[in-house]
Design brief:
The protein is mainly β and 181 residues long. It contains three helices and twelve strands, in the order ββββββββββαββαα. It is globular.
Length: 181
């Protein structure tokens, strides 16, 4: 996999936001026939703590639950979202140095393959902002400096006004006389 241009720590865009790790990268294969990825996951290490984000969702405009992805020699570029399992696991992005490890399970292999490792730092101030699930920290790769630059942003509103009106026009139960005119 190539150097991710962006890595994100924060909440996902669901109705009940939970922590996620997001990255954008190119996956490629040096094998002529390509490779099939059965699943991917991310491990975050901070101090002595390790958390696995094992729910993999990928895509561009529409997202699909990771359940197999063919990667040929030309590669596949897409967004990868890694979420916590729905088993009650609780996770907070605390201040400190994080080691991000990206793994892929390939068809026919017993052990997952470590694709990428990098270190990221979450400051005290950033960790405080991340306690509010409306915020996330983006780490953008700086090719000249050779490291990631962090900035905190409010996560996008999952239901923007145009999406609401499109949904209302498709759903007669949501239509009012003013909306349909």
């Amino acid at each position: 996999m190539t150097q991710p241009t962006t890595i994100y720590f924060g909440a996902d865009d669901s109705a009940s936001p939970s922590p996620k790790v997001y990255l954008r990268t190119l996956l490629y294969s040096t094998a002529k026939r390509g490779q099939i990825i059965e699943s991917m996951f991310v491990k975050l290490r901070r101090g002595e703590s390790i958390q696995t984000f094992n729910i993999w969702v990928y895509g561009e405009d529409s997202l699909a639950r990771g359940s197999g992805l063919y990667v040929g020699e030309n590669g596949v570029t897409c967004n990868h979202h890694f979420l916590l399992p729905a088993d009650g696991t609780k996770f907070d992005f605390l201040p400190g140095e994080y080691k991000v490890e990206v793994y892929a399970s390939l068809v026919g292999e017993r052990q997952p393959l470590l694709l990428y490792v990098t270190g990221l730092s979450v400051s005290e101030q950033t960790a405080k902002q991340l306690q509010d699930r409306e915020y996330g920290v983006y780490f953008d790769w700086g090719p000249d400096s050779g490291h990631y630059h962090a900035h905190v942003r409010m996560r996008p509103n999952p239901k923007s006004l145009p999406e609401f009106f499109e949904a209302a026009l498709r759903n007669p139960a949501l239509q009012s006389k003013e909306v349909s005119e």
